[in-house]
Write a structure and sequence with these properties.
Length: 399
């Protein structure tokens, strides 16, 4: 049985062209770009090219607005910690309830250890940000707003350009974790008020362990990693040159393929989603059905709990993920689904460049029977009320 990979929001297969571009930087082109001899020059040139490729993908004004990091997590940490340093007198952070742990865990830590006040803006049942709560939280005490561009679990897209404009009104910096959005959505950062943006190579068919932080020209920045003068003193440590070259190539391919890929992946996603909703009663899409990444479909199945569905899918070699996290031995809905008051089982199908029609066919072939089996023969799905698993009382125990 050919495996079906539908977990591209967790990580993506490295594009073969990316691998090809990287290989020389493990062999002949091994020089340290900071050296003063002939081994460094071609490596430095390749890094500059990668910076341009990435700047072009996100519509940065200048290549030097790109700082290479070890990935999305480091970029998120660097952005938020820098803001607290460069905005003296401001000790508050505004973020959302559905951010990646790279943001939320750091914020919780800062709250506990540094007395930073964190405003965590709730979302509604479709995962959309509470704009009134957002406006209320914005005050001249806020150093930085960090709101993701698109949510990794549901694909819900946040109106980051508008949110950035609002943040500017109180003089706060605006950062966005765009790890899921870069390469999937067109962006033109230079025409927005976004100050900082995080991205990661392995979510766009590039390598793991490499990412970048965009820092708008003129925005003060304090390096997270202290040491040598690499990256214009904004990220110390000898550069991950194969990774940087790979990220550059991944960015170029994303720019080149984005329009076609968006159309193709969205039509696969929509066919899968339509098929599931049609054949499985009491299932619904979690997240904003309209403002959503083209590759992501998270489907909630009422009257099923936990991850059993994933295990059964794995047995037939279909890889996807759920919004559950196993904490202290108890399977609980993720913070994202909890914030959306969804307590039943969900499955996230996330598509990428290497998926095709056959993948959709396979899933549609097996999922209805798996769901039926988990619901049990004696439980007639027609009997149940729609919206049953959107019950706030049932999720209350988690908060
Ligand atoms: C994957 C992911 C990250 C973490 O990126 P890494 O490169 O794996 O550290 C951060 N934010 C979001 C939204 C993600 O999906």
């Amino acid at each position: 049985m050919r495996p079906v990979y539908l977990d591209n929001n967790a990580t993506t297969r490295v594009d073969p062209e990316v691998v090809r571009a990287m290989l020389p930087f493990f062999t002949d082109q091994f020089g340290n770009p900071s050296s003063m001899h002939g081994f460094s020059a071609p490596v430095g040139a390749a890094m500059s090219r990668a910076r341009s490729q990435l700047a072009a993908l996100i519509g940065a004004e200048l290549d030097r607005e790109i700082i290479f990091t070890s990935g999305g997590t480091e970029s998120d940490n660097a952005a938020i910690l820098s803001a607290l340093e460069v905005m003296p007198g401001r000790t508050e952070i505004v973020t959302s309830a559905v951010e990646h742990p790279a943001v939320l865990t750091l914020c919780a830590h800062l709250e506990k250890t540094r007395g930073v006040k964190v405003h965590t803006i709730p979302v509604d049942r479709r995962g959309r940000l509470d704009l009134d709560a957002y406006r209320t939280a914005l005050t001249p005490q806020v150093a930085i707003v960090s709101i993701m561009w698109a949510n990794n679990e549901t694909g819900t897209i946040f109106p980051v350009a508008e949110l950035a404009d609002l943040a500017k009104e109180v003089g706060a910096l605006f950062h966005t974790d765009a790890v899921q959005a870069v390469g999937r959505l067109p962006m033109e950062l230079k025409s927005t008020a976004i100050d900082m943006l995080s991205l990661s190579g392995h979510k766009l068919h590039g390598p793991k362990g490499i990412g970048a932080l965009y820092v708008r020209r003129g925005v003060a920045f304090c390096s997270l990693i202290k040491g040598g003068h690499q990256e214009h003193d904004r990220r110390a440590g000898t550069e991950n040159t194969p990774g940087i070259v790979g990220l550059g190539m991944a960015a170029e391919l994303a720019s080149k393929f984005m329009d076609d890929e968006t159309r193709r992946v969205k039509s696969l996603r929509d066919r899968l989603e339509g098929g599931i909703l049609q054949h499985i009663p009491n299932s619904f899409v979690a997240g904003d059905p309209l403002e959503r990444l083209p590759n992501t479909s998270t489907i909630a199945f009422q009257d099923i709990q936990g991850d059993a569905i994933l295990l059964l899918l794995d047995r037939v070699r279909i890889a996807c993920s759920s919004g559950s996290a196993c904490t202290s031995g108890l399977l609980e809905p993720s913070h994202v689904l909890r914030a959306m008051k969804i307590s039943c089982a969900t499955v996230r199908f996330s598509f990428g460049r290497h998926n095709g029609e056959a993948d959709v066919d396979r899933v549609l072939e097996v999922v209805p029977a798996i769901v039926e089996r988990l619901r049990g023969p004696d439980r007639r799905s027609e009997d149940r009320q729609p919206g049953q698993c959107l019950d706030g009382a049932r999720t209350g125990r988690h908060s």
